[in-house]
Amino acid sequence: MRSMTDDKVKRRLTTVLCADVHGYSRLMGADEAGTLGALRRHRNAIAGLVERHDGRIVNTWGDAVIAEFASVVEAVQCAVEIQQEISNQESDPPHANQMRFRIGINLGDVMVDGSDIFGDGVNIAARLQELAEPGGIVVSSPVYDQVHNKLSVGFDCLGQQQLKNVAPVTSYRVTVGGRAGRRPDVPIGDGPFQARAFAASEAGARLPLRDGYEPSTWMTSVSDHFASLPRPLAVALTVSSFLFLINVFTGLHRIWFHWPVAALLFAGIMRTVLQGKPGSDKDERR
């Protein structure tokens, strides 16, 4: 009889990388032999990079590649290098026949069966791959939490995504050198999550700076208000301010500025009122 420990499912926490060819069926329809040769070449390159980053290939069903890593940082770094290597290899073929991989990375608990792994930890990585752009990388929030301050890459939050057959997951798109690992001529995408992310980034770019210089300061407001005053009143206020400052710097033990200031303000107000009367325009009518 087998013991109960033999029947117990083995589990472990691991980082799962899932890579898949974008538009594989279309590529096969256009050129089967060429597509298969490119797929083999890219898989060899991926296998070498995975081994270099202390990971292992778990499965290669169809056009997909599943790998696992003990280190989250190594997994993301490997994904970046995979996309760079494939981009370099695919620089010559015509645009329509270029092979591009999409990569999803998740840190989660998996079930282990021999050399294979199963469970939501793997499924989430596969679903995140579907969110990625051609030549791009999307990671889950547990991956982001571990690597966002350890690698020289950027991250764009895509928000919480409803993935097929798994619980909603907050995801992040990896950006390298200001780009999301894609060619400049490839659009961000037409899916709802891409539109929301783009709109959020555009809205963020238009927000005023909170920690820096604000163009509409209180000094600008005072200056604009002062400039809108009638000229006589503005002159009176300017001279009054100078008189007040002179009184302050010569000592407040004797306050004298209020008398000339009162006279100046009275004269400025009266000049403004007289200029506003219809009779003051008689010379112009002549």
Q: Which characteristics define this entry?
A:
286 residues, alpha+beta, 8 strands, 11 helices, disordered C terminus, 8-stranded mixed beta sheet
Commentary on this structure:
This protein is an alpha+beta fold and 286 residues long. The chain is 48% helix and 20% strand. The protein has helices at residues 4-7, 24-30, 32-52, 72-89, 120-131, 141-147, 192-206, 218-227, 231-249, 258-276, 282-285; strands spanning 10-21, 55-59, 64-69, 101-113, 116-118, 137-140, 154-161, 169-175. Strands 1, 2, 3, 4, 5, 6, 7 and 8 form an 8-stranded mixed β-sheet that branches. β2 and β3 (64-69) form a beta hairpin. α3 (32-52) runs antiparallel to α4 and α9 (231-249) packs antiparallel against α10.
**pLDDT averaged residue by residue:** 77
Order of helices and strands: HEHHEEHEEHEHEEHHHHH
Distance between the termini: 122 Å
Structural class based on helices, strands and sheet pairing: alpha+beta
Number of helices: 11
Q: Which consecutive residue ranges, at least 5 long each, have pLDDT under 50?
A: 181-218, 278-286
Shape: elongated
The biggest sheet, with number of strands, parallel, antiparallel or mixed sense and barrel status, is: 8 strands, mixed
Assign a percent range to the helix content. Answer: 40-55%
The count of β-strands is: 8
Beta percentage is 15-25%
Radius of gyration over all CA atoms, rounded? 34 Å
Concise description?
This protein is of the alpha+beta class and 286 residues long. It is built from eleven helices and eight strands.
